[in-house]
């Protein structure tokens, strides 16, 4: 009899419990499938050729060291150093070339063995057709390689749902100041 009573109580409890999000028979979920309002548009490939100006010298640098591990002073690769960037993006390699956006983000020295960085940045466009749009790049950057390739992992505005890759090549590097101009060829699939 005691077993039967326990089972009856359990059945009664389970039959009266409803999800806390349910009201009047409604059920809510974090995922809701939706059909596009318009027919899907084909992706297009855009090739962006830009020059990033990484300025570490002078009174107004665009690259600033914000953190450094105590062991970074002993490391030939600056392992453990974090740097924030807000670098100019121009159409040509000259500092006076037309400004089309900013490369904003960070890089950290992530390798003990070589000048290997983890870079995370947005190319935030401020001019022309792409004004207000961004391309997000995240990946490994081996500073001494002739060509560095990183994935494009997203974007916003006209680059919403972007994917692709970016190739970086050093255009100029000043050994005295540490300033550099890097050519970026970015190939982006977007809608």
Automatic annotation (TrEMBL):
GO BP terms, alphabetized: phenylpropanoid biosynthetic process
GO CC list: apoplast
Compartments (UniProt record): Secreted, Extracellular space, Apoplast
Entry keyword set: Apoplast, Secreted, Signal
Entry keyword annotation includes Signal: yes
Database matches in Gene3D superfamilies: Allene oxide cyclase-like
Leader peptide range in chain numbering: 1-22
Pfam families: Dirigent
Main subcellular location of this protein, as a coarse class: secreted
Family assignment from sequence similarity: Belongs to the plant dirigent protein family.
Protein role: Dirigent proteins impart stereoselectivity on the phenoxy radical-coupling reaction, yielding optically active lignans from two molecules of coniferyl alcohol in the biosynthesis of lignans, flavonolignans, and alkaloids and thus plays a central role in plant secondary metabolism.
Quaternary structure, from the entry: Homodimer.
UniProt protein name: Dirigent protein
High-level lineage: Eukaryota, Viridiplantae, Streptophyta, Embryophyta, Tracheophyta
């Amino acid at each position: 009899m005691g077993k039967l009573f326990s089972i009856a109580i359990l059945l009664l409890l389970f039959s009266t419990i409803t999800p806390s999000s349910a009201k009047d028979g409604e059920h809510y979920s974090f995922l809701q499938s939706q059909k596009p309002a318009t027919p899907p548009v084909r992706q297009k490939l855009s090739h962006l050729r830009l020059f990033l100006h990484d300025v570490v010298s002078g009174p107004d640098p665009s690259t600033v060291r914000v953190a450094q591990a105590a062991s970074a002073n002993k490391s030939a690769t600056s392992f453990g150093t974090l740097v924030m960037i807000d670098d100019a993006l121009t159409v040509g390699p000259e500092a006076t070339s037309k400004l089309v956006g900013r490369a904003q983000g960070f890089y950290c020295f992530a390798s003990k063995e070589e000048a290997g960085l983890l870079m995370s940045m947005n190319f935030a466009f401020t001019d022309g057709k792409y004004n207000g749009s961004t391309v997000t790049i995240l990946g490994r950057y081996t500073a001494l390689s002739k060509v560095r390739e990183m994935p494009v992992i997203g974007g916003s505005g006209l680059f919403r749902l972007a994917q692709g890759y970016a190739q970086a090549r050093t255009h100029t590097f000043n050994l005295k100041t540490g300033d550099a101009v890097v050519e970026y060829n970015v190939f982006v699939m977007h809608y």
